[in-house]
Amino acid sequence: MKVIEAEGRSVEEAVRRVLLETGWSKDVVDIEVLEEGGGWLARLGGGRPARVQVRLRSTKVDRAAGLLKEIIRVMGVGPAAVTGRVEADRVLLDARGPALGALIGRRGLILDDLQRVINAAVSRQGDDGRMVIIDVEGYRERREATLRRLAERLAGRVRRTGSPIALEPMSARERRDIHLALRDDPQVTTRSEGEEPRRFVVIEPRRSGPTMGDGTG
Asked: Does 152 share its domain with 173?
């Protein structure tokens, strides 16, 4: 958390100096007045100057990245570099290191659990509505590409045979990837069936008229 102290002929001037220097806006900082200053004497060039401490508030990216680094440290799977950024309505974290496979688990189940824990923890400290998405060594990107290829291959089979295909049980995130991959396909549609943790996607021929599928659950 970055903290800057500054002086000025008034509290307002001292704060303004910090904001101009850093480019921060007033709504993302906390201001502590260390010295009120000498009032009109300071403004005339005499007396004590006002002194303030301006603290940049931690963002959701900071909190989530800090928590992920601590979990990696406690698990003993470091060293790791964690980077974060905000993208639309999501906070994206990417962790990279030589021994981070333990954070992924079979088909990303441990990574999904870790993501839920971090989302719950950072939301308790103030929630801006953005979901934290955690990736490790580009796993999610690779998995999404694999699922897109699987969806397209099975959709081709459904088009040829006219028969529906049920996929193996998947996590909610993976089911969503399948739904999104085929959402705009004019010949097939998707729906989810079953109960967690055995819920699965069905790819079937698109019938004429409105459908109830296309990405449910």
From this structure: yes
